[in-house]
Amino acid sequence: MLASLLALDLLIHFPGRPGEISLCTMQDEYQYFIALVASIALGWAIPRLPAGPPRQWMCSGMGLFLLVTFCGPQTLHPLITIFGNAAIIISVRNCHTWSTIFTFGYLAFFRSVTYFGLKETNEFCNAVQLILTLKTIGVAFEVHDTQLRRRGIAPFPSNSASFSCMKPFMDVAPSFMDIVNYCLCYIGMMTGPYFKFKTYNDMIRSHALHVMPRITMTKQRLRMVPVYMACFFILSSLFSYSMLWDDKFYEETTFLYRCFYMVALFVIFRMKLYVAWLMAESSCIMAGLGLYPAVSKPKPGYGPTEPEKLPETVDRSTEFSYETIYNIDEYEVEFVPTVRAAMKSWNMTVQYWLAWHVYRRVPYKSIRTAVVMFVSAYWHGLHGGYYVGLLTVPLMLAAEDWVPRDAPRWAKAINWFLRMRAFEYMVVGFICLTYDRTIRYWSSIYYVGHVLAIGFLVFGHVYRHFLRPKRRQDEMDATTSGAADQQLRHSDTNGNLTNPGKLHTQ
């Protein structure tokens, strides 16, 4: 079963240094918002540029401008990551392995620069480095998988027709500068969504961007943003993350209030991410990135799953889909009853990255979920809160597996209520960041999330192995007994009918 990422927390807080709490200031929020608005507006100009180098250099130039503006001298870190990976991918045979080692290794150094006497990196640079990690490793895997496919070798075993690893449509052969330009593209530079080099290259080379209904799609995607922003600002004025590390909060509040506070903070968490991701998706749509004819059935992160159905020509009557860069399904996140289903609708392009580059390539299925969650936690940062939060996910998934798929509506409603509490419980690690602060909060609510999950596991085990077999046996016994009685009555009736004289004997 595909495990997925709990959260890409780029706007609630940025990965800070070990032992510190690094929350965004309102000035950071406004700067981020301005950058997102500018990215959407710039998308209007991209399709009007000639396909190829002019469009490519425009996107890269704006990306470099954003880097220098927001990161200053710390731009050196992203550039080292970009040029180092470009050199590895072009010159090394097993580029995917060496790219992963180099990128994740540099990520560890990047997050601990203060131990080497260097100035700590700012929040924007942290966000850029997160996205670059996905893009550089992702393009290395794209190149490696292309080489394998051309030799007739599957990159990994796959029996999924929708996500075949052998489709030549995904083949890429980028040059050194193609990789650099892809990594420097301004679209999604600090917020995502993740998109493959193939998706980027299709946008750069496309001659059909002008016929795509980009403005209509953008309006459709942004229509709920004012609602989410209003919810965020109202709740932010009433509740604060910093309360979780205030001694008075634990001394003067009750268990129920602390549980309720967790609910409010998770609403703030979701509303801010909804705004960020919807605006980030809109910047992609306005530029024509990730827009494919709907007949090709694109999927988040992956792109067209049936590329053979792509028409040779398109016009304004062609139906397009932005599913490739579709990152968040808010309705599903809010209302589906299970943890697993909700997670599949959360940060979907990053989930694709984890599924394609980590989950499907782990040889032992029994440990895939744990490996994915560990990689996800490491990608987020070095804080203990990430690890205890994300490594709680497998427990929550196992706990809800006992719930039957055909459960009645009332049972699904209860499961939805508990699912929301599970998300709130796990996200505490992302808010508190450090291990000590996370454990302090969890202990103040008596580890209610773990207790409920373990309780579900125990009850599910007892139900499946003892109660359900006994119930089935009782039902079988009752059915057998009823059938025997019916057969006996039927036999008696037949006997009386064949011996009518018995009806009149005295």
Automatic annotation (TrEMBL):
<dbReference type="GO" id="GO:0071617">
    <property type="term" value="F:lysophospholipid acyltransferase activity"/>
</dbReference>
<feature type="region of interest" description="Disordered">
    <location>
        <begin position="474"/>
        <end position="506"/>
    </location>
</feature>
<comment type="similarity">
    <text>Belongs to the membrane-bound acyltransferase family.</text>
</comment>
<dbReference type="GO" id="GO:0030258">
    <property type="term" value="P:lipid modification"/>
</dbReference>
<feature type="transmembrane region" description="Helical">
    <location>
        <begin position="82"/>
        <end position="109"/>
    </location>
</feature>
<feature type="transmembrane region" description="Helical">
    <location>
        <begin position="445"/>
        <end position="463"/>
    </location>
</feature>
<keyword id="KW-0012">Acyltransferase</keyword>
<feature type="transmembrane region" description="Helical">
    <location>
        <begin position="255"/>
        <end position="273"/>
    </location>
</feature>
<comment type="pathway">
    <text>Phospholipid metabolism.</text>
</comment>
<keyword id="KW-0808">Transferase</keyword>
<dbReference type="GO" id="GO:0016020">
    <property type="term" value="C:membrane"/>
</dbReference>
<feature type="transmembrane region" description="Helical">
    <location>
        <begin position="58"/>
        <end position="76"/>
    </location>
</feature>
<feature type="compositionally biased region" description="Polar residues">
    <location>
        <begin position="493"/>
        <end position="506"/>
    </location>
</feature>
<dbReference type="InterPro" id="IPR049941">
    <property type="entry name" value="LPLAT_7/PORCN-like"/>
</dbReference>
<dbReference type="GO" id="GO:0044233">
    <property type="term" value="C:mitochondria-associated endoplasmic reticulum membrane contact site"/>
</dbReference>
<keyword id="KW-0812">Transmembrane</keyword>
<feature type="transmembrane region" description="Helical">
    <location>
        <begin position="222"/>
        <end position="243"/>
    </location>
</feature>
<keyword id="KW-0472">Membrane</keyword>
<protein>
    <recommendedName>
        <fullName>Lysophospholipid acyltransferase 7</fullName>
    </recommendedName>
</protein>
<comment type="pathway">
    <text>Lipid metabolism; phospholipid metabolism.</text>
</comment>
<dbReference type="GO" id="GO:0006661">
    <property type="term" value="P:phosphatidylinositol biosynthetic process"/>
</dbReference>
<keyword id="KW-1133">Transmembrane helix</keyword>
<feature type="transmembrane region" description="Helical">
    <location>
        <begin position="30"/>
        <end position="46"/>
    </location>
</feature>
<dbReference type="Pfam" id="PF03062">
    <property type="entry name" value="MBOAT"/>
</dbReference>
<dbReference type="InterPro" id="IPR004299">
    <property type="entry name" value="MBOAT_fam"/>
</dbReference>
